[in-house]
Structure formats: structure tokens, C-alpha cells
Amino acid sequence: MSDCSAELAxxxxxxxxxxxxxxxxxLLPVSEGREENVIEAMRYALLAGGKRLRPFLVVQSAAxxxxxxxxxxxxxxxxxxxxTYSLIHDDLPAMDDDNMRRGLPTTHKKYDDATAILAGxxxxxxxxxxxxxxxxxxxxxIRCDLILALSRAIGAKGMVGGQMIDLKAExxxxxxxxxxxxxxxxxxxxxxxxxxxGAILAKVxxxxxxxxxxxxxxxxxxxxxxxxxxxxxxxxxxxGKTAGKDIEAGKATLVSFKGVEEARALADELINNAVSHMDxxxxxxxxxxxxxxxxxxxxx
Amino acid sequence: MSDCSAELAxxxxxxxxxxxxxxxxxLLPVSEGREENVIEAMRYALLAGGKRLRPFLVVQSAAxxxxxxxxxxxxxxxxxxxxTYSLIHDDLPAMDDDNMRRGLPTTHKKYDDATAILAGxxxxxxxxxxxxxxxxxxxxxIRCDLILALSRAIGAKGMVGGQMIDLKAExxxxxxxxxxxxxxxxxxxxxxxxxxxGAILAKVxxxxxxxxxxxxxxxxxxxxxxxxxxxxxxxxxxxGKTAGKDIEAGKATLVSFKGVEEARALADELINNAVSHMDxxxxxxxxxxxxxxxxxxxxx
Lengths: 300, 300
Description:
Farnesyl Diphosphate Synthase
């Protein structure tokens, strides 16, 4: 795989960041009144950096079906609101207890625990407000399809359930298949949904939707393995959070089962699979192919 | 106002409780796998009693428009999921720090803080999953209208914003109009939405929808005043939580501004207003009229 292709995706991602940030800001409620504290915390968390991987996947999957840009951007913003809410709540002292993320104080350190809990709640709620609005798509069936698929991806059998398992895993040892299931729930499902958005907006349920799903499953797991490798190999400055935290917490990961070499080989294989699933599309899928390569080459 | 009428509403509410509880249980995800802890906490919180006032309002407002029972019950269940999530999060140590609710340990005391945060998150998500499902209504426009109205009622400019103001109010003194605004956001908006559900499901936006909104505004504020009065007058056993907590926290309430007598008179006036708004409906609105009287006569 060429690093050049990965660099292209990295540049696209970087250019895209300000686009999605402006869209999210435009969708935030007005920060006035005595409730402004929670809106400021929402804004702080939304703007605290990040790769904007999920919204980028949304926009790229929508481009495969020539979807209207405004529709794609609104769904992308909603998904980043959901991702941000999950980070705010996961960072809380009662959960992973992280003080720093992406080199900045986490939301509860910048504000306080109560404000962080409420900011997360409001961002999750805002995501559904955005999706249900006719500005997102004129077809209400499509809006409901988006909401149903998203809510299933992030509920007790999806992202929230995955976080529950991950928290409990600090006291229990998970087997390899259980780790894969946990990571699929915790991060995989939302990445899969992000990639399926194009097909949902286009009302397409054929092999193209399945290809996007498979692409997402593969990059989702690869992404997680690279995260675990960075946790071992990276330094805290590069990854913007405390390195070695998983090891310290005694958490089993795929890397701890397989060892660094085998895990890296598996990640390579997953990325190759992801790229090959994009063959059902025309040249428009080049960005998603290069993005897969970026996932494995990233340093943080 | 006759206590007899209020007793009728109380009996209807009591009979209704098991109906809505069974419906909520049927909509919970299966409690299996390593994530079962969070699903058990969702179930615990959902079944920990309560008057089921909001789902009852939904079903009664739907009855005014002869809406299909299954539609009404599913929306009612979704709203009770939202109400329950808000109680779980509000009770957390970082928020109101309550150990008991309705005579039972709060969710974070029964489980732990992390599980309670996640159970609240999952219940909020489940509400949107229920509403977006075609089983709730065959018309996707109606499903989106429900989701949009709900998300606006409970976000940063609604319930969550109200809770933010209430938390900050422990350190700031609010004026009377600010207390009314805060209470309207914190509890009023969700009660208004519950009452509007019948009109939304019937696609009606005329004076009947406005009458339901006005009814809800009046009973919502009256409900809050009665809550404040109970906090002063009630004993902890009756109200199932610690009495005098607001006074101890130095919180201004309408009762602390107006005094007990004037506050009680205002609540009576609000209930009379609420009842008179129901005059645009036929005899089907008798239950909502008697419910208004129950609100003011309740002991907890």
C-alpha cells in the first residue's frame, strides 16, 4: 500500500474538518439565557479536534450515490454529535476517568461533571433533532430509516452496550471473540452506520449497501487494532492522551492476545479486505480506498 | 372541585400503570450477553414505580382523536423512557445526588454511577428507536413530527437546559419569571409534548392542538407548585424522597416567593384554566379534566 494514497486521504480529512465544524456550529442552539453553560460545553466538546472520521465516511458514502451535499453534511454533523456525546460520557470520572483528550482538558475538567453529563445528553438529543428535520431530506421515510438505524447502532445492543462490557472487562478477562464483539458494539456499529448512510439516503438495499457495510466492519476493527498498537507503541504527546492506559488497567486487547506482529498483519489484511469491497463502485470510491490505507498508517 | 373526580383519575392512573409497564418491558432489548448489566439497570429504573403521568396524558390525548391504541401506547412508552432517563441522570452524585426515589434506591445506588449513566443514555436512545419504527405509525411524516417535537422539548433549550439552570440556581437567586421559565423547560415541555401527541398522531394543528398545549402548560406549572408545597409540607415517607431538600439547598421556588397560601391559590387557578381549555372537546376529555383535579389533590 502506498503512503501517498494514505496522505491524500489525510489531506482530504484535514480540509473537511473545517467544513463539518462550521456545519455543527450552525446547528447548535443559540448560547443565551441561564442555560448557556451547557451549550458552551457542547460547543467546546464539538470543537475539541478529532479526525472527523465518521462524518467524512458519511460524506464519502453519500458521494457514491450522488446525494445532495446538504443532506450528507447534516447527517454527518448528527453522527459527530453522537460520537462527541459518547466521548464526553466515556471520559467522566465514573467511567474511564480521563482528564485529557486530543491534548485538551476533557469536558468535565473544563466545566464540571454535571455540565458534562448534560452536554452529552443534549448532543445525543440534538442528533435526533437534526435527523428528523425535513431539511435533512424531503422524504420522511428516509429520515426515519436513518433514525432507526442510528438508534440501533448506539443503544444497549450497540455503542452503549459495548462501553458497558468494556468497563466491566477491567474486572473480567474477555476471550478473543468477546473482544471483537465488544469492539464491534462500542465503535464498529457507528462506523458501519456512517458508511451505510449513502445507501440509506439513496434508498438502496442491494450489494452496494452490503459492500459499504463490509468495508466499514473491516476498517472498524483495523482502526481498533491500530488504536491498541498506538497505546503500546505511541507516546502520550502524539496520541493526545495517556499512553499505556489499557495495559495499566489490565484490559485484554486483540494485541495482547496476538502479539504486536500478528496484530499488525491482521490489521493489514482487514484493510486489504476493506479496499476490495469498494470494487463494486466506480472511481468515486477512490477516497474511501485511500482512507482505509490512512487508517493503518496513522500515528494518532 | 370534587375529590370524587380526582379519585376517578387516580384509579384510572393506577389501572393504567401495569399496562404501560408491560408495554415498556416488551420494548426493552433482550437482557443477555456481557452487556446485560445495563439492560437490567434500564429495567430496574423503568419499573421503579412512578405515577406514569406522562404516558397517561399521551394515551388520553390520543383517545380524544380516536387514535389506534398500539400507536398511543408505543409513544407513551417512549416518553416514559425519556422521563426515566432524566430521573436517572438527575439523581447522580454529580447532579442532585439523591440516594432514594419512590422509596427505592436510585439506579446509581442499586448499580453504580457508570451503569446508571449508560442506562440513562440507552433509555434516551431507545425512545427514538421506538418512535422511528413503523410499528408506531404507518405514516413516516408523523413519526418524524413526533421525534422533532420530542427532541426540541428535551434538549438544551428544553428539559436538559432546565436542569442546567436548576443546578446553577443553587448558587444564584432566580427571579419569579426565571423560575417559571426554568420549570417550563425542565418539566413543562415534556408534559406539553405528551399532551400534544394525540394531535400530532391525528395530524391536527387547529385550536384543539392549541387547547391541549394550554391545558398542559397549566397543569405542568400547577404540578410543580404542588411538588414544592409537598417538599415543605409532606413527610419523606409519603413523597418517597427526602422532604425539605429544596429549602436545604437554598433553592428559590414559586412557593418561597409567594408563600404557601398564595401559591396554593395560584395552583387552583391554573387547574381551573386547564379544565376550561378542555371544553373544545366532547365528553372524551372528562378523564383529562379529572386528571387536572388529581394533580392538585395528590399527596405525593
